[in-house]
Amino acid sequence: MAEYTISDYLRGVVRGTEPTDSALKGICLSAGIDDPSASYADLSLRQQRLALAFLYMWIATGPSGSEKWSEKDGDWSQSGGGASYSRDQIRLYIRLANDIFDEYGLDRIGNPVWGFRGGGIRNIRRTRNGRHI
Fold it and tell me: Is the pTM of this model over 0.85?
């Protein structure tokens, strides 16, 4: 039986997504994983969760839809693509990613609100460990 890799996990965890090899490499590097073919079981929970958060961000920052494609040769056929995401789904992916970032004390992404805080104009939604910075 083949080993279950982090790439396998990321390709299968969110239905309708088809991240490219280069996207998976970037997602893994962002999560502190050097090799997308690393065994899922050998990674720390932090690496697994951060990879998932960066996948959510990859989905949320990409196009809201993709074209369908299909191939046919005699009795054989194959098709794919055609995924589309509503504004609410994109917001959900950003929220899920930010929940994971909060879990590990990392900066949240998206939806900044600028205001006066602590002697200057700053992103007042930006927090670290539950406190505004």
Answer: no
